[in-house]
């Protein structure tokens, strides 16, 4: 088996960062965006607003809300208290809930069905963008699509061109091992961004996720569990996405 190529990006902080030039675009890219556990659309849209603005001429960000109300605080595993007075747009949502030991997931299959339905009805989607649990959901979704399309399944949407993981990780539930095989690398282009000082998610888990992809691109930052959005990183994301444009 050939050793996969891994691109590790190092950004020169001393180098002047210029905003990427905008190519002539025939059609904007469409990117599916998946928030993290105990977040919601309101939070995720706010935290990615500067990236959405930077991409306005080249891509549309299509945000989807997780279908499950989060039941547990991921920091201390204490039960989250949601009452009837909590506004709908402020409820903490997720792609699944989990057992106390994080080894069993509840509701993930429903989330996968929802995303496949959205991709059929609202697609085609060129890329998928996920943060934390949303990254893990993106990994399952894209692997499912790639495997099913390779089988010739005409019922599933096409596999996106790329996927972007921020603080991503492989699921712990063994039921989803079928989507991650170190002997068969996933071909979808992938960008893996994670913080070297992440206290919520061991950076080794993000690093491990990258090993399941052919030629992954890895970009680390010195921070923790968040999507870095300073100009230097933001320009890099925009340039990464632009390579998938059809231009004239």
UniProtKB/TrEMBL annotation:
Residues 26-235 form the Serine hydrolase domain. GO terms for molecular function: hydrolase activity. GO terms for cellular component: cytoplasm; nucleus. This is FSH1-domain-containing protein. The keyword Transmembrane helix does not apply. Residues 1-20 are annotated as: Disordered. Pfam families: FSH1. Keywords: Hydrolase. SUPFAM superfamilies: alpha/beta-Hydrolases (SSF53474).
């Amino acid at each position: 088996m050939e050793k996969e190529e891994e691109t590790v990006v190092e950004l020169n902080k001393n180098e002047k960062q210029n905003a990427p030039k905008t190519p002539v675009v025939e059609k904007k890219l469409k990117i599916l965006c998946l928030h993290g556990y105990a977040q919601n659309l309101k939070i995720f849209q706010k935290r990615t607003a500067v990236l959405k603005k930077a991409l306005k001429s080249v891509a549309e960000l299509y945000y989807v809300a997780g279908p499950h109300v989060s039941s547990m605080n991921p920091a201390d595993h204490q039960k989250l208290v949601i009452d009837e007075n909590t506004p709908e747009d402020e409820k903490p949502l997720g792609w699944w809930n989990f057992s106390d030991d994080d080894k069993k997931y509840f509701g993930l299959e429903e989330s996968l069905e929802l995303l496949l339905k959205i991709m059929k009805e609202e697609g085609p989607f060129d890329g998928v963008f996920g943060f934390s649990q949303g990254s893990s959901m993106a990994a399952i979704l894209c692997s499912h699509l790639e495997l099913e399309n390779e089988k010739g399944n005409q019922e599933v949407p096409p596999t996106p061109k790329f996927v972007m993981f921020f603080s991503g990780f492989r699921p712990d539930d063994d039921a989803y091992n079928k989507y991650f095989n170190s002997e068969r690398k996933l071909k979808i282009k992938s960008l893996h961004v994670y913080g070297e000082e992440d206290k919520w998610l061991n950076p080794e888990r993000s690093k491990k996720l990258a090993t399941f992809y052919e030629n992954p691109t890895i970009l680390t930052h010195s921070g923790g569990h968040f999507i870095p959005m300073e100009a230097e990183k933001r320009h890099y994301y925009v340039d990464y996405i632009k390579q998938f444009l059809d231009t004239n």
